[in-house]
Every structure is written in structure tokens, then in C-alpha cells.
Write a structure and sequence with these properties.
Elements (H helix, E strand, L loop, with lengths): L2 H59 L7
């Protein structure tokens, strides 16, 4: 192999390693964001369940409205 060929291969490897590191960072950032979004979704689901159960229980404890 010629020196130029080896230099080209080293350059390509360096370029690919750079891109791999960038992609790894993107994947790690997306995993963190997904974890945060899953936590927000879980919180929202719990709040909706609490609101629905409080609406149902308050509606059952109220006396019926007078009929006209």
C-alpha cells in the first residue's frame, strides 16, 4: 500500500469515528428526552385518573337536581 492510500484510509476512519461519536450523543440525548416524556405522560395519566375519579365521586354524592 502506498503512503497516500494509508493516509486516505486513516482520514476516512477519523471521519467515521467523528460521526459515530456525534450519533452516539444524539442517541443518548434522545433516550433522555424519551425518558422525560414517558415520565410526563405517566404523570398526566395519573392526574387524569384522579380528576375522573373525583368527578365521578362528587357527582354521586350530590343530591339530584329539582325537577321543574
Amino acid at each position: 500500500m502506498s503512503e497516500q492510500h494509508i493516509a486516505d484510509l486513516e482520514s476516512r476512519i477519523s471521519f467515521q469515528e467523528d460521526h459515530i461519536q456525534t450519533l452516539n450523543k444524539v442517541v443518548a440525548d434522545l433516550q433522555l428526552e424519551m425518558r422525560d416524556l414517558q415520565e410526563q405522560l405517566r404523570h398526566t395519566q395519573e392526574r387524569i385518573k384522579a380528576l375522573l375519579s373525583s368527578d365521578c365521586s362528587s357527582a354521586q354524592s350530590e343530591p339530584p337536581p329539582p325537577h321543574y
